[in-house]
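EI: anyone free to look at a 256-residue chain?
SC: sure, send it
EI:
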Amino acid sequence: MLYTMQRLSTRVASRNVLSSVATFFGSASYSSFLPKQSFTMPSLQSKLQNMQQHAIPGDMLKWGLLGFCRTSKFATGFTPLQQKPLDSIIDIERVKNRSPEDLAAIWDDYHLGRGHISASMKPKLYHLLEERASHCRHFVIPLWRGSGYTTMFAQVQMPHMLFTGLEDYKARGTQAAPYFTVSYYTEYAESKDLVLIRGDVVFTSKLSDSEAKWLLETAQSFYLNDVRYKLVERFNKETREFEFKDVLQALDMPNL
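SC: here you go
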């Protein structure tokens, strides 16, 4: 929910920000979370004054001071993400008279074996995902690999999802390159009650197709399931209360 930022001094706000981040990231030095071009104190004060004049998401207070542009960009080249036009993927004229079931099957068949992930969903679910993502843009998801897991960092800014490794994000901030991008196409939402989904694995060395598909399904489940979404809200709005072990428990993964 959007709310007006309370007036806090720069010193108190900065201390709270770093404390909130430390709650999740542990004892690593704060400098490891900063992008290469962090704010100087004068620009930080100016930024605070600017932010206080607008109703903004609560998570901006926690992260904006660290130099993370959480509402407009994720990585160089993805500001904003350029979505591939739907008519460059499928022949719109040839599918316009097909049933929703046929269209979903055609969409899946087209992407099979092409190094992409495809899926579809009902517009009702898409709008719920869109609404919830507008308040909570970020989350962390453990990806199980063998005897352990690697943690992925997700940005959900509809009609896109972007995933990168948490370690890369901690090291590079907004310069971290996404491993996996997802685009949602709503052209058939009204006529066929269907939203088409396309995923592209950017770095196949970092993420397999099956892992990417699991990430997409899991991220959607955290935003669309009421119980799981509480963890997303906690991560974005109540960082000090967030416990990563709760995410592991929700996914039936051991707390290593």
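EI: The mean pLDDT is 74.
SC: 👍
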